[in-house]
Amino acid sequence: MSEVSTTAAPESMDINAVLKCLPHRYPFLMIDRVSEVVPGSHISAIKNVTMNEPFFPGHYPHHPVMPGVLIIEAMAQAAAILSFKTLGDKANDDSVYYFVGIDEARFKRPVTPGDQLLLEAKFVFNKRGLWKFECSAKVDDQVAAEAVIMCTMRALGE
Length: 158
Hints:
This protein has helices at residues 15-21, 68-87, and strands at residues 11-13, 33-38, 42-48, 95-107, 116-127, 130-139, 142-155. It is α+β, with helices and mostly antiparallel strands. It has a single domain, classed as Thiol Ester Dehydrase, Chain A. It has a seven-stranded antiparallel beta sheet. A hairpin with a 2-residue loop joins strand 5 and strand 6.
């Protein structure tokens, strides 16, 4: 892995660039677009929540709510993109991005079909391959969820 970049201009990413950066695919890709990423600093990404999501038929069919664990996953995917952009790298078939810890997770409002999640992750540190981020998911400027997420990238077989 290369050194962490801390000075770079912000950029945006459409779905094609997201697909090149993350290994996730339907139904587990949780990022539709990146509105801004500054390597070594922060990322803002979008998840459009629609009734077509595969979890809604079974997660309170009478009142569909996005599962909290998937909101955490969406924040982690945004953080993963920030990690890859910071390293000047992308996901590959030889490594996996794992959760190491999720702290201070709080859920403040339900996320329902028609909502647009604004996912934000702020880089806290990277020490010996352990990444830490402060993350939030907002709907209409209201915090839906927040957490401190720690992740690491490992070669397959480690």
